[in-house]
Write a structure and sequence with these properties.
single chain, alpha+beta, eight-stranded mixed β-sheet, 4 helices, 10 strands, 16% helix, 32% strand, globular
Length: 208
């Protein structure tokens, strides 16, 4: 299906008009500059961090956030690997290939990248970062780990996948730091694996 002509992608990293989307994204939450996010942005923006929103019929219905692996939100390692912190299109905007539009825009902007990486979730109660949806966008799994959240639904075991999209011939897939992954993420308060500022230590427990 062809993408609707009313859609446009806007880089908001240095745009005051959309500053709130650097913090609250598409989640139904109030805008506030919380410390973890602010520290991450101050460090990452000068080093190649990007966040873009997709506007359709004058409404923000999608977003993508990415950065070089060294300053991404995940403990993913790889030479000239760009890591997608988040890609999200609202369910009500399905049917226009907006996810692929955002991915293609990123690939066009990062032509020197050897490839792109992110994480995917399976059997997690959240509707975000689903492995099968990322596969539809062109990613494939190169590693995985089974975990349980120590504080939220600790009885539910789910899998985290290291997802990879190769961009250059002979590019090597990335790796990740598993122990760091178990600590959770601090770059986005809406992330399914977010570790709050008051939580110490690991929020995830590896399962065999």
């Amino acid at each position: 299906m062809e993408t609707a002509p009313q859609a446009k992608i806007v880089e908001i990293t240095r745009t005051e008009a959309y500053e709130s989307y650097l913090y609250k994204c598409l989640a139904p939450m109030p805008f506030r500059k919380y410390r973890n996010r602010q520290q991450y942005l101050e460090n990452a923006i000068p080093k190649g961090f990007h966040k873009k929103i997709l506007i359709y019929n004058e409404k923000v219905i999608g977003q993508i956030e990415y950065a070089p692996s060294l300053i991404s939100g995940y403990p993913i390692i790889g030479k000239r690997v760009v890591v997608v912190n988040c890609i999200w299109v609202l369910r009500k905007a399905k049917g226009h290939d907006f996810g692929k539009l955002l991915i293609n825009n990123m690939k066009e902007s990062e032509k020197n990248a050897f490839g792109f990486a992110t994480i995917g979730l399976e059997n997690h109660w959240s509707g975000w970062f689903k492995k099968d949806q990322l596969e539809e966008l062109g990613f494939k799994s190169v590693d995985s780990i089974k975990v349980a959240h120590k504080f939220k639904r600790p009885e539910q075991v789910f899998s985290i996948y290291l997802m990879w999209m190769q961009a250059k011939q002979n590019a090597r897939p990335p790796s990740w730091k598993r122990q760091r992954l178990l600590m959770g993420e601090t770059f986005c308060i809406a992330h399914p694996l977010y570790r709050s500022e008051t939580t110490k230590g690991y929020i995830l427990e590896e399962k065999r």
